[in-house]
């Protein structure tokens, strides 16, 4: 059997279980080229031995000083959720990373930051198409700066996951994980409201159960197969008409990978992945408000790797897709509470309503096909330089569709009339009682958008003595923004002592962002509009359109592609065989980011083809910018420290930054038709100011210490067992920020309109808030029992926030992280 086959299969045996539990060198990247020195490789050993939580990539990145992870399940109010955390690299928005699986994009381009379940205009999205389970991953590499020209379509960083291959011997793994509210301390500001389980953001009760089965087997000397099924489910009781009803969360992963090793040492992988997600929701006192959200994605991929005479060839062909869908009733009615509509709750102001219905059936899909080819040369000499060339190209087609199945009606302004005759309309009128005088209509429609994108890159790593320089260039073009973007990459390093003990590195790079199809879909869609009616001699009249509706229309044209310029410099120093120190400075300037402004009223023809309506178009420009300076330091051992019967490793890391920005978030860019008029003002420090002029306060700083211990084999209950203990200590320094502390506290802002009249608007009050320092300890303990020669029973316990410290969720007031939480996991490997 070929050497490459043996090495590949031997490495892949860590797929399901390992009889060794070595200490984890947390940052352990031994490649000191200038484009690799700022990356972090996380292998299977670290994945197995670190905190996994909900079992996604975001869970294993939380000790990286250049990454911030926002995980909704770490919030005491929403601890029952099971979606992946949001990953921000160097303070860039989480949706501006490039997520890759086996060299192919896993990015969703359809509104990744929309989260509101009952938004009548849209449905929730996610930045990933596939929620990849950690059991399917062999290795994750995170690039946060000095990033190779091989990667594009990001202004944050790159997260590249490599999935597992079959091992040299058959392996099967069954595993189960569990946590619940009874195993979790929850810290809540308003316990009375929380315990009533009102809405999705109050989850006093929950149960999570995770099930996994993985099978890996060689089929013969040249073929191997991996089959896997992973199921994560969470049950969350919610308040419903005086009682409780379960809300469900479900994420599944179906994975199959066939690998064939050719006689010439080339490898062919055929991989299929399907990862659906479902969640159910309802409103407490809204009749027939049951809503189901469906998401997730699928992919079919062929990967071919071949070692040519002087080149390594890697090529991928992939078909992938995803959907974001809501199933809900196509009407929403706000009745006055009466004897016939009696399910509503009495309000303190004396006017009570009985609501019913949902927010409409809407489906958004993305599907596409991608082909890429990469060539990496062996080292070759040219003059006095040693060179290594990388080149390649990508071409892809993505299509997105928005489909509202039926007209959706939002009925408002109910009017009592004890003489009203409904004139045949009994769906929005109660005879001799009440009727609606206004409704907003979201028309049934289909909108479609597509994008063809191409890219090519060239990069050459040159070495001369102690010097290494890696110049590169990347070309990107797509037919949406129609920009030909040229991104330069220039990175270099110096090894003054001609070995790896000291590495000085620096870089100057430009990164261009994604083109979101969600923007293009909105540009193609029909504005909403209102209809009104009254009565004539108490007989209900027909609906008539109004021309005074301020509907939204989005216009994206002649836009430049947002980009970020980066300058970085750093040093990696080994102090003998004792420890390694890495110090890095990164300056990033985000330029030509999307910004929006309202235009003048425009006329459009109503869907009835006769009546006219008016809307204010939202125009998009490139007026957004941000600037940040980030310093980070990491201390870690060069190799595991040995004492007594234990291997010991550690990583001490921290970062701090200075930033300024006027960039709108994705949610800010996409305002919805049902939102209130935004006047762009807030109240702070005793006066009204522009919202984008809120003073920037210091960003929160934290210090992370990762300690891990791998004990030699011992006997427990006369069974050989190996034990590992991993600890993550996180210390958050105190800081100030400017926040809304009470959403009900508003001030009235009076503005003068062009015609001399005035308009009053309620705006939020911002205050300076102090966040105290806090320290938490997370711990994971693993026992691996060798019950037979090739059979292992593995018990692991994760304890989040061991000392049950109370601390705010980052930059949030009156919202606290979960307290002490236990996760119990068991796996049987044979």
Number of helices: 5
Q: Major beta sheet, specifics?
A: 22 strands, antiparallel, barrel
Arithmetic mean of pLDDT: 87
Secondary structural class: mainly beta
Strand content: over 45%
Low-confidence stretches: 1-30, 672-677
Radius of gyration: 29 Å
Q: Could you give the distance between the termini?
A: 24 Å
Q: Give a count of the beta strands, DSSP E runs of length 2 or more.
A: 49
What characteristic shape results from the CA principal axes? globular
Describe the structure.
It is built from 5 helices and 49 strands. With 830 residues, it is mainly β. It has a 22-stranded antiparallel barrel. The radius of gyration is 29 Å and the shape is globular.
Provide keyphrases for this structure:
single chain; disordered N terminus; 22-stranded antiparallel β-barrel; 830 residues; 8-stranded mixed sheet; 5 helices; mainly beta
SSE blueprint:
Layout: H1 3-12, E1 39-43, H2 44-49, E2 67-70, E3 86-89, E4 98-101, E5 104-105, E6 137-143, E7 158-163, E8 171-180, H3 191-195, E9 207-218, E10 223-240, E11 243-261, E12 267-281, E13 286-287, E14 291-307, E15 311-327, E16 331-336, E17 353-357, E18 362-377, E19 380-382, E20 385-404, E21 408-416, E22 429-430, E23 434-442, E24 445-464, E25 467-478, E26 484-494, E27 502-512, H4 517-524, E28 529-532, E29 535-536, E30 539-540, E31 544-545, E32 551-555, E33 563-575, E34 579-598, E35 602-605, E36 612-636, E37 641-643, E38 646-661, H5 666-669, E39 681-684, E40 687-690, E41 702-711, E42 714-716, E43 719-732, E44 735-739, E45 746-752, E46 758-771, E47 774-788, E48 791-800, E49 821-829
Parallel strand pairs: 4-7, 13-17, 16-21, 32-36, 39-46
Antiparallel strand pairs: 1-6, 2-3, 4-5, 6-7, 8-9, 8-49, 9-10, 10-11, 11-12, 12-14, 14-15, 15-18, 16-17, 18-20, 19-20, 20-24, 21-23, 22-23, 23-28, 24-25, 25-26, 26-27, 27-33, 28-31, 29-30, 33-34, 34-36, 35-36, 36-38, 37-38, 38-41, 39-40, 41-43, 42-43, 43-47, 44-46, 45-46, 47-48, 48-49
């Amino acid at each position: 059997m070929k050497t490459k086959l043996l090495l590949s299969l031997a490495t892949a045996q860590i797929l399901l279980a390992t009889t060794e539990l070595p200490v984890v060198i947390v940052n352990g990247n031994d490649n000191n080229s200038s484009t690799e020195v700022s990356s972090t490789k996380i292998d299977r050993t670290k994945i197995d031995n670190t905190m996994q939580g909900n079992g996604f990539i975001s869970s294993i990145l939380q000790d990286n000083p250049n990454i911030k992870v926002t995980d909704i399940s770490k919030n005491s109010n929403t601890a029952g959720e099971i979606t992946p955390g949001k990953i921000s690299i160097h303070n860039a928005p989480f949706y501006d990373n490039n997520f890759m699986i086996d060299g192919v994009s896993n990015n969703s381009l359809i509104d990744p930051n929309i989260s509101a379940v009952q938004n009548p205009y849209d449905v929730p999205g996610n930045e990933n198409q596939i929620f990849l389970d950690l059991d399917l991953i062999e290795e994750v590499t995170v690039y946060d700066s000095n990033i190779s020209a091989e990667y594009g379509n990001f202004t944050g960083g790159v997260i590249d996951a490599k999935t597992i291959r079959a091992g040299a011997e058959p392996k099967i793994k069954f595993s189960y994980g569990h946590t619940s509210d009874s195993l979790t301390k929850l810290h809540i500001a308003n316990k009375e409201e929380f315990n009533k389980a009102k809405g999705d953001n109050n989850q006093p009760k929950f149960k999570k159960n995770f099930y996994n089965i993985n099978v890996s087997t060689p089929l013969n000397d040249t073929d191997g197969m991996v089959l896997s099924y992973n199921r994560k489910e969470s049950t969350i009781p919610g308040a419903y008409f005086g009682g409780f009803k379960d809300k469900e969360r479900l994420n599944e992963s179906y994975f199959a990978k066939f690998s064939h090793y050719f006689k010439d040492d080339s490898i062919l992988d055929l991989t299929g992945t399907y990862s659906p997600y479902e969640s159910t929701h309802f409103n407490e006192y809204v009749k027939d408000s049951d809503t189901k959200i469906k998401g997730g994605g699928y992919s079919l991929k062929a990967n071919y790797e071949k070692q040519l005479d002087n080149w390594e060839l890697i090529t991928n062909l992939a078909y992938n897709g995803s959907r974001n869908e809501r199933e809900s009733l196509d009407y929403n009615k706000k009745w006055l509470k009466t004897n016939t509509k009696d399910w509503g709750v009495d309000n303190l102001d004396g006017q009570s309503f009985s609501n019913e219905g949902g927010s409409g059936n809407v489906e958004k899909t993305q599907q596409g096909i991608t082909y890429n080819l990469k060539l990496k040369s062996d080292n070759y000499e040219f003059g006095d330089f040693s060179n290594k060339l990388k080149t390649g190209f990508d071409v892809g087609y993505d299509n997105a569709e928005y489909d509202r199945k039926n007209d959706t009606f939002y009925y408002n302004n109910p009017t009592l009339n004890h003489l009203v005759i409904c004139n045949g309309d009994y769906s929005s009128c109660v005879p001799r009682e009440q009727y609606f005088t206004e409704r907003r209509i979201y028309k049934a429609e289909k909108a479609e958008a597509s994008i063809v994108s191409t890219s090519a890159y060239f990069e050459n790593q040159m070495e001369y003595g102690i010097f290494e320089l890696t110049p590169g260039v990347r070309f990107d073009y797509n037919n949406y923004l129609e920009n030909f973007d040229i991104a330069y990459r220039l990175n270099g390093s110096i090894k003054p002592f001609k070995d790896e003990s000291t590495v000085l590195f620096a870089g100057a790079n430009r990164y261009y962002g994604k083109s979101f199809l969600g923007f293009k879909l909105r540009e193609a869609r029909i504005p909403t509009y209102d209809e009104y009616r009254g009565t004539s001699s108490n007989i209900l009249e027909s609906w008539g359109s109004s021309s005074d509706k301020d509907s939204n229309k989005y216009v994206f044209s002649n836009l430049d592609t947002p980009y970020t310029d980066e300058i970085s410099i750093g040093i990696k120093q080994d102090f003998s065989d004792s420890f390694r120190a890495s110090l890095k400075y990164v300056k990033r300037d985000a330029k030509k980011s999307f910004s929006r402004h309202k235009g003048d009223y425009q006329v459009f023809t109503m869907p009835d083809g006769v009546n006219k309506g008016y809307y204010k178009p939202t125009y998009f420009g490139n007026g957004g910018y941000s600037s940040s300076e980030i310093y980070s330091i990491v201390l870690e051992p060069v190799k595991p420290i040995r004492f007594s019967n234990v291997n010991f490793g550690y990583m001490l890391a921290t970062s701090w930054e200075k930033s300024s920005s006027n960039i709108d978030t994705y949610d800010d860019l996409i305002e919805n038709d049902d939102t209130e008029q935004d006047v762009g003002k807030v109240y702070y420090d005793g006066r009204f100011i522009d919202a984008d002029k809120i003073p920037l306060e210091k960003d929160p700083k934290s210090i992370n210490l990762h300690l891990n211990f791998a004990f030699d084999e011992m006997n427990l209950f006369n069974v050989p067992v190996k034990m590992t203990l991993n600890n993550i200590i996180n210390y958050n320094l105190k800081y100030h920020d400017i926040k809304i502390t009470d959403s009900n506290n508003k001030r009235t802002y009076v503005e003068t309109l062009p015609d001399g009249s005035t308009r009053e608007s309620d705006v939020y009050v911002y205050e300076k808030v102090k966040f105290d320092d806090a320290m938490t300890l997370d711990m994971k303990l693993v026992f691996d029992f060798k019950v037979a020669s090739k059979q292992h029973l593995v018990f692991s316990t994760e304890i989040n926030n061991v000392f049950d410290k109370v601390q705010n969720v980052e930059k949030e007031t009156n919202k606290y992280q979960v307290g002490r939480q236990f996760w119990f996991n068991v796996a049987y490997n044979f």
